[in-house]
Design brief:
By secondary structure, this protein is mostly helical. The chain has one domain. The chain has six helices and no strands. It is elongated, with a radius of gyration of 18 Å. The two termini are about 30 Å apart.
Amino acid sequence: MDLRQAFESAHAEHAEILEFLNTWEDALKLIADPDCDVRCQGLRQLQGMEGKIVEVCEHCRQEEEDPDSPLLRFAEAADRARIKDEHFRLYRANYEFRREMEFTTSSFTDDLVLQGQRLLKALRDHIACEEELLRRFEIEQLHLPEAVAQA
């Protein structure tokens, strides 16, 4: 995969995750509903999304293990360490959310909703940070060399 494709792929994966986070958030809204039937529907929907919820963390693992990942390939040591630390915190929060989901009933959804909202915010913040780094690396690696060559 060439460098331009690697950047495009990273951006596309982030966009796909962000789109899924909206679906996840919609399910959280259902389980926060005052109507018990709506909460049950939301819990079933959320439980059906568990595989995709796991995939969100798999994305983090793949970013760290992929030698073609522009994010870690061009990041300085401090940025790499911060990204890996954030990934670890996201793994834990994801795991804890799924454990809470396993034991949540339609009568007691408040903790799951709060945990889910915190996790969604952390995921969105993390992706925004990664996207900012990717754009910077993209300019440094793809656009600056082109500008120098044209000068």
